[in-house]
Design a protein that fits this description.
CATH superfamily of the largest domain: Histidine kinase-like ATPase, C-terminal domain
Order of helices and strands: HEEEEEHHHEHEEHEEHEEE
CATH topology of the largest domain: Heat Shock Protein 90
Shape: rod-shaped
Strand content: 15-25%
Length: 439
């Protein structure tokens, strides 16, 4: 409000200064022109001609004309002119003189401006103008300045109050929503007006952040429930076997078998927690700074070589279609783990004597099996930690394989798509940018 008012005041002051200066400059130029004309007449016709010229100009004056003339002798006694006497004020070095002029009709006193001209050292000539119009103009500009400033101040005050109320209402809305969210209502969102202004942008960003927080909180609750559900059974089995071994039932060979099974259960638990920690590290750390060129063709070949014996035990075959070597920026170990998890799931869920197809193209990697597949309604859920499409939990596994694949894909900016192989499942990893391809 203050800045707006100051701007208006400065503008009006500039208008006042430029207008008054322009009028005074024009007045001075008019006086100079009249003096020049009178001086030429004096040079031509002498004092008589000068006096006649002044008298002629006075006779032509109309009411309200502001021209002033006074010709005096060397003692300043008036000879001709429309001034009653020589002004008491002193002229400056250039001959300009500002003096007060009384109005015989109204009795008011105005400012006049003129210039003194000496006629061959014997006579004095004063040519000037009544500055009444300039005074009135200055008064009008000053009045306009004052009233304009007051009006602008009022509008600025009104606009400031309205803007303040609008901003306060928007902030109060955000504060109320934040209070509800802090009270535990994570589904609460900050409303927006749809105007696209800065507050709407802030609300959209905050709502997006709240969506992510709610998703993470749901994930934490879901993971906690799944950990309690999935780890309770192996922990119970581990306890029972250790308790049986402690009681000393059976012979030494049976006790050793119980201990070996307990160790296997402990290893499985450690693998589960290791997978959880690995996923957490992938999601938390900025691994992109350590990325290097990775040949996906070689990674796929290594994964295939590792799992071929497992597939052969189930009388399965792995078909690889990678006609070109594809290189991307990434972490080789993480990519290896992701492809290994996908291939392990394909082998695990595909029936015996089936073929698993792996294809590496320029922009994507696809792995298709002939297992039971995943229902379309579960496509988003299977990437959640501990989620099992097999609700009976009859198939071995912790439900963390696809979660780790999702984490690796996210850090490598890849998209995962699940499709129906009729029968079976097709998993596609699409690269965010075209990788380098070498023949």
């Amino acid at each position: 409000m203050a800045l707006f008012t100051i701007s208006v005041v400065v503008l009006l002051i500039f208008i006042y200064w430029s207008t008054a200066a322009s009028i005074q400059r024009q007045t001075d130029e008019t006086i100079e022109a009249e003096i020049q004309g009178l001086a030429e007449r004096y040079d031509t016709d002498g004092l008589a001609g000068l006096s006649a010229q002044i008298a002629e100009r006075l006779n032509r004056q109309q009411p309200g004309d502001s021209s002033l003339y006074l010709l005096t002798d060397q003692r300043l006694n008036p000879i001709v002119g429309n001034l009653s006497g020589w002004p008491n004020q002193q002229a400056d070095e250039t001959g300009w003189l500002d003096f007060r002029l009384g109005d015989d009709i109204s009795g008011k006193v105005h400012t006049a401006r003129g210039r003194v001209f000496r006629v061959r050292g014997r006579y004095h000539l004063l040519v000037g103008r009544n500055m009444y119009e300039l005074e009135q103009t200055r008064k009008r500009i000053v009045n306009t300045l004052v009233w304009g400033s007051l009006i602008m101040f009022g509008f600025a005050l009104l606009g400031g109050v309205m803007m303040n109320r609008s901003v306060t209402r928007r902030i109060d809305t955000i504060n109320k929503a934040s209070t509800e969210i802090m009270a535990g209502n994570l589904s609460k969102r900050i409303p927006s007006r749809g105007s696209g202004d800065e507050f709407d942008q802030l609300a959209d960003h905050l709502n997006h952040m709240l969506d992510q927080i709610e998703l993470l909180m749901d994930g934490v609750r879901r993971v906690s429930d799944n950990i309690a559900h999935d780890l309770r059974t192996p922990l119970a089995r581990l306890r029972n076997r250790l308790e049986t071994a402690r009681e000393g039932g059976g012979n030494d060979e049976q006790r050793m078998e119980l201990i070996d099974r307990a160790i296997q259960e402990a290893d499985g638990l450690l693998q589960t927690f290791g997978a959880l920690l690995r996923i957490a590290r992938i999601e938390a750390n900025n691994l992109q700074a350590s990325f290097s060129d990775v040949d996906l063709g070689l990674v796929l070949q290594d994964v295939t070589d590792l799992y071929e014996p497992v597939a052969e035990q189930r009388n399965q075959k792995i078909s690889v279609d990678a006609q070109s070597s594809v290189s991307i920026k990434g972490d080789r170990d993480l990519l290896f783990q992701a492809l290994a998890n996908l291939l392990d799931n394909a082998i695990k869920y595909s029936p015996p004597s089936s073929v698993i197809h792996a294809k590496l193209d320029n922009g994507e990697f696809t792995l298709c099996d002939s297992g039971p597949g995943i229902d379309e309604s579960d496509h988003d859920k299977v990437f959640q930690r501990f989620y099992r499409a097999d609700t009976s939990r009859s198939t071995a596994g912790s439900g963390l394989g696809l979660s780790l694949v999702q984490a690796v894909a996210t850090v490598h900016k890849m998209k995962i798509e699940l499709g129906d192989n009729k029968p079976g499942l097709c998993v596609t990893l699409r690269f965010a940018t075209n990788p380098n391809q070498r023949s």
